[in-house]
Design a protein that fits this description.
Distance between the termini: 38 Å
Order of helices and strands: HHHHH
CATH class: Mainly Alpha
Number of helices: 5
CATH superfamily: Tetratricopeptide repeat domain
Number of domains: 1
Number of strands: 0
CATH architecture: Alpha Horseshoe
Shape: globular
Radius of gyration: 12 Å
CATH topology: Serine Threonine Protein Phosphatase 5, Tetratricopeptide repeat
Helix content: over 70%
Strand content: under 5%
Largest sheet: none
Amino acid sequence: MPAWNQRAIACFELDLFEDAANDCQQTLELNAYHFAAAAGMAHCYLELNDAFAALECFRRALRINPDLEGIRAQVAYLQRTLEGK
């Protein structure tokens, strides 16, 4: 499992956002409680201009770890942004 998440990070750094999101998904399939993978996947979707998918991933990260204040702020921001569309 750590290898999938590490590869996701490497792909993200190389601007390979779809590959990174896929690796985050693989990480979550192996460990449904990996909040960093859920948050990482959300950031990938932001880079891919898919705010709806990003919001769902940020929400998933919050369900796993409700103490993530930065992620909570992202959820609030995306909800406001998407409601305005």
